[in-house]
Design goal:
alpha/beta
Length: 253
């Protein structure tokens, strides 16, 4: 995929992995369309990058369909989608006060997994109308899984299940969308310096970093962004979930 001149939609773009990825792709010459439930945050990211921002609920069909339609009408048809929007919820399946909150579990699945699929289905439909490159490529979709998809910890049932779903979605989506010239890959980040982790006490951050074999630090969101950029540029990466984690493996708790 030629990034320069491409239109790239990035979800969760108000902060963290999404904001960093938007900045990396903008630096490579992409026109950034920032999506986030936090509309002011999306527009703030877009303004810094000479892009456009939209308030979008990725888990809502109407919200996504309208936003993508507006993008196509006002900016053009995207050829890159990076799904970074996501939420975290920690709760034991059986806790001291009884069974886990089913609504909370459903909310995580709805945003992290169904939201990813929702964005994929609508944007892939738009991408299918792009003129193909010389190799037949029309678009690239990059989803965010997590190492929790493979080593979910105690209390992470909802988050691990949602990210495991994203990882499992990757290959069938790549196979199905191949006929349209659209590649699909996922990134499974480890412990990254996102607002969620950076809000923890320093000693907790240091403990998390110490568990990473090398480098012994939290990942920089820009490193995620650079991997996303490489996936866009490398046409042979398709149907795969790539870990970026410094060789860390999560303990049970």
């Amino acid at each position: 995929m030629q990034i320069k001149g491409s239109i790239a939609i990035v979800t969760g773009a108000a902060s963290g992995l999404g904001a960093a990825t938007a900045a990396v792709l903008a630096g490579a010459g992409a026109k950034i369309v920032a999506f986030d439930l936090n509309e002011a945050g999306a527009k703030a990211t877009a303004e810094k990058l000479d892009g456009v921002g939209f308030g979008v609920d990725v888990s809502d069909a109407v919200s996504v369909e309208k936003a993508v339609s507006d993008v196509v009408a006002s900016v053009g048809t995207p050829s890159i989608l990076v799904n970074c929007a996501g939420i975290v919820h920690g709760e034991r399946i059986v806790g001291r006060e009884g069974p886990a909150d089913l609504d909370a579990f459903a909310r995580v699945i709805n945003v992290n997994l169904i939201g990813t699929f929702n964005m994929m289905r609508v944007v892939a439909n738009a991408m299918s109308n792009n003129a193909p490159s010389a190799s037949g490529e029309r678009g690239v979709i990059i989803n965010t899984a997590s190492i929790a998809a493979f080593e979910g910890q105690i209390g992470q049932a909802a988050y691990a299940a949602s990210k495991g779903g994203v990882a499992s979605l990757t290959l069938p989506a790549a196979r199905e969308l191949a006929r349209h010239g659209i590649r699909v890959a996922s990134i499974a980040p480890g412990l990254f310096g996102t607002p969620m982790l950076m809000g923890l006490p320093d000693e907790v951050q240091e403990s998390l970093a110490a568990n990473t074999p090398f480098p012994k630090r939290l990942g920089d969101p820009a490193e995620y962004g650079r991997l996303a950029m490489h996936i866009c540029e490398n046409e042979m990466i398709n149907g795969e979930t790539i870990r970026i984690d410094g060789a860390v493996r999560l303990e049970p708790k």
